[in-house]
Amino acid sequence: MNYLDKLIPLFEDQRNEEQAAPMKKYMKNHFSFLGIKTPARVQLMKEFYIDTAILKRPFQRDLVLTLWGKQEREYQYAALDYIGRSLKKLEKDDLFLLEKLITAKSWWDTVDALAQNPVAKLAASYPEVIPETIDSFVIDENIWLQRTAILFQLKYKQDTDEALLYHYIKHNAASTEFFIQKAIGWALREYSKTNPDSVRDFIKESDLAKLSIREGSKYLK
């Protein structure tokens, strides 16, 4: 079955140029949009899943890559939706696929979703990928790989590898890049819900950007 032949007409039929313009503007004009708002897109994906029964079949990596290559941003969101519903099917080597997605058409909307969900799932299921691959993300010149390394433990709570998190943050603490400073603050803020004393001490002892400190301290009293 050609899954694209099923999905593309669903999306194209809902093209709305009037809605597309503000969506494009919100994303700083980095991407074109069909103009399909989230609730409608979610419903279209449900129709697609029912019509194709794709979720009952092996993970379709080629479909993900094809969707990622399409111009309009909704197709990348469709790929993310499909990946999110296929987390149990992901294999260790799929981290290389995810790395391709992180470094293509990169912006916070897709990168953060990839970091918190499939990358987080693979790192939890196959901890060896952390020293094998994710460690290299944090020293890569690509800021989106750096951001992924900092954020992949965001939902780990008590399972957070604190030493690893702090190591990654320290490595990027001097960054002047907004998306890295913001990621550091976000990661610390989330972990402070689990271990506030540790985060408080870490912020006090570390030379962090003001933005990172402000974001990371929001829940600390």
TrEMBL record:
InterPro entries, per database record: ARM-type_fold, DNA_alkylation
UniProt cross-references to Pfam families, sorted A to Z:
DNA_alkylation
Q: In this entry, which stretches build a coiled coil?
A: none
Q: Where is the signal peptide?
A: none
Q: Membrane-spanning regions, if any?
A: none
Name of the molecule in the record: DNA alkylation repair protein
